[in-house]
Design brief:
Serine Threonine Protein Phosphatase 5, Tetratricopeptide repeat
């Protein structure tokens, strides 16, 4: 930040002495780094208005388009990107940026129906949003155009690491995982010391159940950036998915030493402790989380389950009650409390909780089925 501010001061002075379009352009670039997008737009517009250097003008349109995209002015940004490509159709960067924009346009239309509606939409519009999503699943022309732009960018500059990363992200968002991995592979080949490609590929591999390969990528991330707790955390989470709980706990502990304020690190370590029946340490971690965030309903529910497993039934019940007080729509908390009441032989209350769990399950079909199965079992016992 300090370097950019210093550069901005120098550019301001340069423009005072000689207001060339080159000086305005570079000041615009500095302002982009400082996230001063409206001011940057003014400088890029000045470059375009001066129009004395045809070589720099398409870059000014590209820069202005980037700023407008960041400000949510997607349609105006598209006009600028089209201008930059119209003036110079041989720059890979322009196509990559336009590809990114078209993805954003598609998502915006999927959520809001119209780009211009985006700031006005509220949670009450969720039904309309779902309808828009259904329409956009069929209307994929923007995504097809985005992919064409990424492909053109690769053709123009097949050695650009960033383009493979962007296209890989595009493929991943479309659930075209093998193609995404292929692009991330190419990115790591082109820039073996850049951490982003290992990170992105590791996340993707774990999301499709290839945890061993994901761990290899997180190993590389740790090698490149050993001071970051994030990569130890991600590796620990992958190990936990492989039921390598003791090794996972070591990674979570290292992550915590590097970032003791990240509550998710404690939550994941608590889960790993509970899986090896070290309930005491799990509860300590959950306590730490709740000291940091006493309104975290989900952690009360998790701590309650751990206490239930430790046969601390009264304390577990207290945690479930607090969880439901904080979030009365938490289906899992109802289900867990129902299982506890079942252990305690309070069958009428158990049924009520399983019914609540069933009615409040929106997307968790597994939990809904468990609630049904438990209700059927209680019915046959009666």
């Amino acid at each position: 930040m300090g370097d950019y501010l210093t550069a901005l001061l120098y550019d301001n002075k340069a423009i005072e002495l000689n207001s060339t379009n080159t000086a305005y352009y570079y000041r615009g670039e500095i302002k982009v780094h400082l996230q001063m997008y409206n001011d940057a737009i003014n400088d890029y517009t000045k470059v375009i208005d001066l129009a004395s250097d045809s070589n720099i003008m398409p870059f000014a349109y590209n820069g202005r388009g980037l700023c407008k995209k960041e400000l949510g002015l997607f349609e105006e940004a598209l006009v600028d990107y089209n201008k930059s490509i119209g003036i110079n159709p041989h720059i890979a960067l322009f196509y990559r940026n336009r590809g990114d924009l078209k993805q954003s346009l598609h998502i915006c239309k999927a959520i809001f129906g119209d780009v211009n509606n985006a700031p006005k939409t509220t949670k009450k519009d969720s039904k309309a949003n779902n309808n828009n999503m259904d329409i956009c699943k069929k209307d994929t022309h923007l995504l097809q155009e985005a992919l064409m732009d990424y492909n053109t960018a690769v053709e123009l500059d097949p050695t650009c690491y960033f383009t493979y990363m962007h296209r890989g992200s595009f493929y991943e968002s479309r659930e075209m995982y093998e193609l995404a991995i292929k692009d991330y592979d190419k990115a790591t080949e082109l820039a073996p010391e850049c951490i982003d490609s290992y990170y992105a590929r590791g996340i993707l591999l774990c999301s499709i159940g290839k945890y061993e390969l994901g761990i290899e990528d997180f190993n590389k991330c740790i090698e490149i950036e050993p001071t970051s707790g994030l990569f130890y955390f991600l590796r620990g989470r992958a190990k936990s998915s492989l039921q390598q709980y003791n090794s996972a706990i070591e990674d979570f502990s290292t992550a915590i030493t590097k970032n003791p304020n990240a509550k998710e690190y404690y939550i994941q370590r608590a889960y790993a402790y509970s899986q090896i029946q070290n309930y005491e340490e799990a509860i300590i971690d959950y306590n730490t989380v709740l000291n940091k965030d006493p309104m975290d309903a989900y952690t009360y529910c998790d701590r309650g389950k751990t206490k239930e497993l430790a046969k601390m039934y009264n304390e577990a019940l207290d945690d479930y009650n607090i969880a439901l007080k904080l979030d009365p729509n938490d289906a899992l908390a109802y289900f867990n409390r129902g299982t506890l009441y079942k252990i305690l032989g309070k069958y009428d209350t158990t049924k009520d909780d399983f019914r609540h769990a069933y009615s409040k399950c929106l997307d968790n079909e597994d939990l809904k089925q468990l609630a049904i199965n438990n209700l059927k079992e209680l019915k046959t016992q009666n």
